[in-house]
Amino acid sequence: MTQQLILDLLPPSAPTLDNFVVGENAAALDALRHWEAGRAIYLWGAPGAGRTHLLRAVAARPDALYHGPGANPAALKGIATGDLLEHKLIAIDNIELLDDAGQAALFALYNRWREVAAAKQGFALILAGDRAPLAMPLREDLRTRLGWDLVFRLELLSDQDRAEALKTRASERGLQLSPEVISWVLTHYARDMSRLSALVEALDRYSLEKHRAITLPLLKDLLASSQT
C-alpha cells in the first residue's frame, strides 16, 4: 500500500533506454538500441526485471506501437491483415496474458512479420513475457515462434546495482543519500527501479517541503504520512 501511495504522489519518469539500469542486461539493451526492421526480439524475466520499461522505451517513437495488457487484440489482427503497415516497430508486452483472440492475432502478426521481413514494409517485432519461450502458456505454434530470432533473459538487479542506481538517481537531483538510507530502502522497499526512482523523487520533494535533510527518520516520516 505504501509503495503505491508513493507512486501516486509522484509518478516515475518516462521510461527510456538511457534511464534503464543495465545490471547484467547489457546484451539485451544493445539489441534494443540497434533493432532493425525484419528482426524480432523476445525478452523474458521475473516481475521487476524491466520488461515493460524497455518495451515502452523502445516503442516511444512516432512510428512504433506499444500493445500492453488489456489492449484490444483486434488492433494486432488489423495490422497483420491490413494492406498498409504504418509501424516500423511493434512492441507487445505480457504476452503470457493473451487470451485465445490475442494469441490468434499474434500468430497472424508473426506470419505477416516474416512475410515482409525483407521488404520495404518490414517491421521489428519486440515482445516480452514472464518466462522462456517454450514454457509460455500459449499455443504451441506461438511458443516456437518466440524463439525464431533473438531471445534475452532479463536478470534482476543485484543489491549493489540497485545501490549504485539509487546514488545516481539522487545525484542527478543534487541529492546525497546516506549509506543508512540506501541500506534501509534496499531491505524494505520494492526491487524494481521505477518504484525506487519514484521514491527518490518523492524524498526530494518532501525534504524541500519540510526543510529537512534526507535522513532515515525523514524517509520513515514520508512513508507514514502517505498512509494518512
UniProtKB/TrEMBL annotation:
Task: Spell out the molecular function terms from Gene Ontology.
Answer: DNA replication origin binding
Domain named Hda lid: which ranges?
Answer: 159-223
- InterPro entries registered for this protein in UniProt: Hda (IPR017788), Hda_lid (IPR055199), P-loop_NTPase (IPR027417)
Q: Which GO terms describe its cellular component?
A: plasma membrane
Q: Which GO terms describe its biological process?
A: DNA replication initiation; negative regulation of DNA-templated DNA replication initiation
List the protein's name: Regulatory inactivation of DnaA Hda protein
Q: What is the lineage of its organism?
A: Bacteria, Pseudomonadati, Pseudomonadota, Betaproteobacteria, Burkholderiales
